[in-house]
Amino acid sequence: MSRLALVRDPRFLNHITPDAHPESPQRLAAIDTAFVKAALDNSVKQLEPRSAMEDEIALVHKASYIEQLQDDTKRASGGSLVQLDADTFMSGATFDIAKLAAGAGLTAIDAIKSGEHDSVFVAVRPPGHHALIDKPMGFCLFNNIAVSARYAQLSGYKKVMIIDWDVHHGNGTQWAFYDDPSVFFISFQQYPFWPYDSGWYTEDGSGEGRGYNMNIPLPKGTGDRGYLSAFDQLVKPVCREFQPDLIMISAGYDAHQDDPLGQQNITTSGYAMLTQRVRDLSFMTGAPAVVFLEGGYNTRSLSDSAIATMRVLNARDEGETGAVHASYLMPAAAGISEHVTGDRNPALVDERIREVRQHFGKFWPTLR
User: Fold this and answer.
1) What whole-number distance in Å separates Cα of residue 188 and Cα of residue 167?
2) Which domain holds residue 80?
3) 165-179 tens-digit pLDDT
């Protein structure tokens, strides 16, 4: 049994975006190449996704929205691209590919439910965490992780924790579960940043969901130190108290120091260490982990960081885990060393973490 399974499919390359658009097919092509180069294809079980049925997508999205996308597909069938919002586009194949992306998460849930794997990486496009229940946004059509969370709950996983470390706020996922205490949503994001109307820590849920929506708005220039500190001081204690049955990750890699869209300072090593913390939480709670690809627009840093996540999740023992981390911290063959980065303004980062901790201490005794 491989610890990690990978859901992948070459059909995800068929979602076409305009030339020079950041969310391009080259993103997944780079991950595919890096996956083979890292020899992970010899040790990681690869799964073919199925398409989500429309009633499964409707666990999150309005039926009228799904119908609207079908109508938009007809406009794109002649080979032209349809612009859905300022930066989200459809080609003729996009609707079917978006259904496949949503279904890839359902394939992942079925894989962990079977007990064959304790973690799954879902390598899909278009991404999903900005998609709202009734409209597309930020390159996203269907909210893949939200649909999978609802499907997982129907499969017996009652308490779900979603951790989003994309550089942009996971606004679509937030609003899908804002009043629901069975889904604890935690989002790291550069702040202020796009989308500009969401992501502050006082957005903490509504009704019975108060306290189950935690935003961690970090200033630009935050590096490995700040992200890891926030994880240790905020995510780890509330996860221990919440005790989820399933941990899901919206893994955007656009907070990497080399990404062209973000202004954060995480390294590939930093993503390996964040993933290690997810794996530790999985062991601590007994909850399997499912990781969904979101953003990341430098193909080199994206593919390197995604592979780092896979290598950590697939490590068989402490020795192998240590070797994975060492490979990112030690000088590479080209003489370039990866290092743990600090924060441009560590005092501001620490103040923000204290503010979030104090605010959520009203809901979670472990933070008091």
Assistant:
1) 7
2) 4-367
3) 999 999 999 999 999
